[in-house]
Amino acid sequence: METYTYVNIFETKGLEYLLLICFLLLFVLLVRYLRGPHRD
Amino acid sequence: MAEGRVMAEVRRLGPFLAAEMRPKGPVLTPFNLISIPIILLGLGILVVRFTKGLGSVTNLSQESPWGLWIGFDVITGVAFAGGAYVITFAVYVMRLEKYKPIVRATVLNGLLAYVFYAGALTLDLGRPWNIINPIIGNDFGYNSVLFLVSWHFMLYMFAELIEFSPAVAEWLGAKRARRILSGMTVGAVIFGITLSTLHQSGLGALYLMAKPKIHPLWYTEFIPILFLVSSIFAGLSMIILEGTISHRVFSAQVDEKRHAGFEDMLFGLGKGAAIAMFVYYFFHALVFVHDHRWRLIEGFWGAWYLLEIIGLVLVPCFLFAYGVRNRRIGIVRTAAILALLGILMNRLNISVITFNWYSPHHYYPTWQEIVVTLMVIFSEIWVFRWIVLRMPVLRAAHELPSRGTLGTSRREPVPG
Predict the structure, then answer these.
(1) In the structure, what pLDDT confidence band is assigned to residue B397 with cuts at 50, 70 and 90?
(2) What ipTM describes this predicted complex?
(3) How many domains are contained in chain A?
(4) How many CB atoms lie within 10 A of CB B59?
(5) Containing structural domain, residue B157
(6) Separation in Å, CA of B251 to nearest CA in chain A
(7) A16 touches chain B (CB under 8 A)
(8) Can you tell me the distance from the alpha carbon of B100 to that of B304, in angstroms, rounded to the nearest whole number?
(9) B300: region left, alpha or beta (phi > 0 left; psi from -120 to 50 alpha)
């Protein structure tokens, strides 16, 4: 009986989803950073 | 009566154009002294190329049929010209009026880039007279990316010509023609943006069929998307660089008010470039993970790839962001130069450097190819300078020359 399974983050494209989530978070931070103290 | 007036205007046009042909500044400048010999040498090489064939002046072969003239002039030059569709989208579609003062210079730059760089395609064709085939239908290749690219280049040049034509009408004092041409601008802009998004990505699609030839670090089925996104910040960086040089060289053409607002415009462009580069970098990261490229990051090609992606994409992206936030114009300009180098490197990597990377007989451009490339660049700068010194490109758009030739004899301000 198999009680333990590995989930391959590469084959499930999990890494790509994580990367995309990181991108979205960092994108928001970048836009906030670019707005900065000097607003147009 | 009307016919007589037209004839009188046409008769006045001759002396006006003759006067405009005279040099408007000093002739013996360092730029002229460097560029004239290179242009003359380049013309001589072209005579040899067209009389004795491509093999007489290039290192092109059946194995490497596309060299520097395609890799730099067409593939890179068209990316650098991307600023025209980006800035016209910002001004005419998004109504970001603060960029309006640079629209004409950018569109002119884009138009000339297409005429000269895309025109350099003709030099690279073994049978240059066949360039007309996709247009006149001798051999419509509906499934060919080149068919799309050739039609788009031609149509986009017309669209940009229409976008720039009000400046020509103002130069000639043709008030009625200017009003008609200005009315066509928005339509031409929308048409031009549509064409640009397609052929910027289409240039990348040309390489989809070369999968076995391009190094796997650079080949991806997403090349068209990467080409499109990179053309956005390539265009913006080119505007920053070209605008900086133009504002120094043609400072007499720019009034004080525009000088004052120029840096603010550059910061806005830098902000756009930072965002576009960030998106581009993550597209690359996704492709990297998707294709499991870790195993390829080794040796020379791995280091070369990291230099491009980290050194000339991520670093300038951060520099743009830092420069914009802290209002450091020098850093924004440095970032623009690095970003342009990154685009140059990326496009040459795909089209020339990593093309046939495994082959023992690698392609290197001859000195003649380099001279002709320099000739194309210098010729474009010459024409750009000629137009900027005569037509209302950098100076206020509503100004009309004091001596007109066509249209009306009365000089009234024309709505901008």
Answers:
(1) low
(2) 0.78
(3) 1
(4) 17
(5) 27-51+65-388
(6) 25
(7) yes
(8) 39
(9) alpha
